[in-house]
C-alpha cells in the first residue's frame, strides 16, 4: 500500500501480523520525542546533495577501540555540563550514550540528549517536551530548533 496514510500502512501491517494495535498511542516522552525528531529530520533530507548522518556520543565497538566521541562533544561547549549531570542514569555508567549528533558533511551541527534537550553550536538549548506541549506535532519543533539546516 504505497502512498497511503501512515495510519493505513500501520493498520495493514498490524492486520498482516495478526496483532491488534493499541486503541490509543501512549503519550510521548522526552526520549521518544528525540527519536521522532531524528527520524523526521533525516527523512526530510533524503535525496539532498549534502551527506547527513546521525551518530551516538559513544562509539560502542565491544572493546575494540571505541569510546566517547570527544570530537563531537567539543563542538558543543554547553553540553559538557549536561554530560556530567547524566552520570547517575547513564547506560553502562557512560553518559555519552544519552547523546546523539546530527552531522552534515562531517560537521556536527545539532546535539540531542535523550532527556529531551536539543543543543546548537551557538549555545542555544531547547526543551522538546515544552515545545511539544504547545502543538503536539514534531514539525513545529523542528522548525523552531533546526530551521537553519532544513531546505
Name the structural class. Answer: alpha+beta
The general outline is globular
Beta strand count: 7
What proportion of the residues form beta strands (DSSP E)?
A: 15-25%
What's the tally of helices? 6
Mind summarizing the main beta sheet? Answer: 5 strands, antiparallel
Rg over CA atoms, rounded to whole Å, is 17 Å
- Average predicted confidence as pLDDT: 85
What oligomerization state is this entry in? single chain
CA(first)-CA(last) distance: 28 Å
Stretches where pLDDT is under 50 for at least 5 consecutive residues are none
Q: Portion of residues in helices?
A: 25-40%
Question: Which series of helices and strands comes N to C?
Answer: HHEEEHHEEEEHH
Query: Going across the major beta sheet, what is the strand order?
Result: 1-4-5-6-7
Task: Give the structure's gist in a few sentences.
The protein is an alpha+beta fold and 151 residues long. It has helices spanning 6-16, 30-44, 70-73, 79-85, 128-135, 138-146; strands at 52-56, 58-59, 67-68, 99-104, 107-113, 117-120, 125-127.
Tell me what the structure shows.
The two termini are 28 Å apart. With 151 residues, the chain is α+β, with helices and mostly antiparallel strands. It has six helices and seven strands; from the N terminus they run ααβββααββββαα. The longest helix has 15 residues. It is globular and about 45 Å long. Strand 5 and strand 6 form a beta hairpin. Helix 2 packs across helix 6. Strands 1-4-5-6-7 form a five-stranded antiparallel beta sheet. Strands 2-3 form a two-stranded antiparallel sheet.
Amino acid at each position: 500500500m504505497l502512498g497511503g496514510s501512515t495510519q493505513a500502512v500501520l493498520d495493514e501491517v498490524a492486520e498482516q501480523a495478526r496483532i491488534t494495535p493499541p486503541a490509543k498511542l501512549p503519550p510521548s516522552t522526552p526520549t521518544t520525542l528525540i527519536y521522532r525528531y531524528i527520524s523526521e529530520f533525516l527523512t526530510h533530507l533524503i535525496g539532498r546533495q549534502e551527506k547527513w548522518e546521525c551518530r551516538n556520543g559513544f562509539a560502542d565497538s565491544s572493546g575494540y577501540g571505541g569510546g566517547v566521541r570527544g570530537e563531537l562533544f567539543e563542538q558543543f561547549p554547553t553540553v559538557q555540563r549536561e554530560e556530567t549531570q547524566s552520570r547517575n542514569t547513564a547506560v553502562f555508567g557512560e553518559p555519552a550514550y544519552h547523546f546523539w549528533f546530527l552531522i552534515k558533511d562531517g560537521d556536527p551541527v545539532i546535539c540531542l540528549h535523550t532527556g529531551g534537550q536539543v543543543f546548537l553550536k551557538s549555545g542555544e538549548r531547547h526543551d522538546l517536551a515544552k515545545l511539544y506541549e504547545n502543538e503536539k506535532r514534531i514539525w513545529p519543533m523542528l522548525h523552531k530548533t533546526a530551521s537553519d539546516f532544513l531546505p
